[in-house]
Amino acid sequence: MSVPATSNPVFDALPDLSRRQLFRFGGAALAAGMLPGIAGAAPEAPVRGGTLVAIAFPEPATLATHLNGANPISLVTSKIYDRLFVEGNKHELLPRLGLSAEPSADGKDITIKLRKGVKWHDGHPFDAGDVKFSIEKIWPLQATTITNVIARVTAPDSHTIVLHLKEKWPILLRYLGQSAGQVLPQHLYEGTDIATNPHNNKPVGTGPFRFKEWQRGSHIVLERNPEYYIAGQPYLDRIVWKVINDSASRAAALETGAAHFAARNPITFGDVARLKGHRDLVIDTKQYEPNSYWLEFNLRDPLIGKLAVRQAIAHAIDRAALVKTVWGGYGAPLDAPVPSGVSEYFTKDVPRYPFDPKRAEQLLDQAGFPRKAGGWRFRLTHDFIPFGDDYRRTGEFVRQALRKVGIDASLGAKDLSTWTRDVFTDRKFQVISTWGGWSRDPQASLDVRFGQRGDRRGVPWSKVSGYSNKEVDALLEPTRSGADPALRKVNYKRVQQIVQVELPVLPLLEVYFFSVYNRRLKNADELPYPTRNNFANVWLAKA
């Protein structure tokens, strides 16, 4: 028997008018009933209660996603704060705090109707003032792709906001579902120093789970919000995020059932091979957006600032071997700025740097760095992102590759807070390795990596290379509206060609992330990304 299209509780709550409006920009997927959690057979009846034990690694540095958009932070806070909309598995826009988004005839105004009867976790009523405040004061800290195109925000009534755009921007709705900032409480943040507000680490949201406690180095506890706006949800009583830094201990916790869920490669690839056949576990690779992993160079450095040095580093690294030996085949070599998963804009027509150690040595010689006594040309420190074993091993692989061509490379061994400060605020590094996710639209990622709008000192995950190119900026500017698809393809291809010549960033591989969760856990894969799924509809079957 088929499940009706309205089996999704969020969608059930919509008035008919809002459903029609969502049909308008959700496409055929909504009309066909392709909503999260829908299958061809009758769903199991949810079991109420229970504690979900999830793994946090590395431990979040803060719970302020508006200050630091790192995935370990968003994974937790997405259960506390709800957003206006969220993207579904078929790229449809699903309602959260927003019920509908109606563009004006000229496309320059977007009217968003908000859900009524919502309360913040402290009991204060949610209204349009919270959304207006968040868009004006909070989102510019992270979601600049959206806020840069908004001229002003008005609130005609307590449950309506209007976004007045600087220009027609048809792709706004896409970004609202993918990367819009969370909505924060105006009554707790207005008039305060947002960066030091105590609620950054004791968050008060509108989501299905309330913040209870955080014992650093041990755990974060979220408890069920009994006044959540979807009747009967959430099903879980609480979520306990256990901080487990050692990969072997994470594998043991998942294997024994002591933990039920962990995201983004929580165990080694050797353990994946061993646990794939485990009757109680699911290895899920379907939840993740396209991801790329790269080296980013500090062009201010007198060594790394030389193009020939960066080209030599590119030729010194065997990407195929990196994918096979370090990433266990959960990836693919990448020699273009945009990964192939962003299929509409991916191009192979860019300069490439095949593995060629001899060419690397020639370039270093020509750059004035011959081998000296002991065989070394110069010293270099590689600060890998401290997110776990895969990243450390990637750093070690790169270190060994560079040493083979005479670069005395060493690894920085920093905790996440130190790494974030040194890289994004102080710019105190030579080379980093890091990764990032890509949406179906690459504008935001290209801006952040290569464009002038990526120059945001102190903002994690923004551009740190110091790279600047007026032609790149000129190519990115007219593509923001999304109004001319043909121009976007031409300009994005040209941007990729330019930056692949100048190499402020060296692409290494596409990463195929996976989650590991217990089969008792239901609907963990309801939405495409764990950092967007608020787990309101997640439940634990009885053992």
From TrEMBL:
Q: Would you name any one GO CC term?
A: outer membrane-bounded periplasmic space
* The keyword Signal belongs to this UniProt entry's keyword annotation: yes
Q: What Gene3D superfamilies does its record include?
A: Dipeptide-binding Protein, Domain 3, Periplasmic binding protein-like II
**Which SUPFAM superfamilies does the protein's record reference?**
Periplasmic binding protein-like II
Pfam families linked to this entry = SBP_bac_5
Q: Which GO terms describe its molecular function?
A: peptide transmembrane transporter activity
Q: Boundaries of each Solute-binding protein family domain copy?
A: 94-452
Q: Which UniProt keywords apply?
A: Signal
- GO biological process assignments: peptide transport
Assigned protein family: Belongs to the bacterial solute-binding protein 5 family.
Return the protein name: ABC transporter substrate-binding protein
Tell me the lineage of the source organism. Bacteria, Pseudomonadati, Pseudomonadota, Betaproteobacteria, Burkholderiales
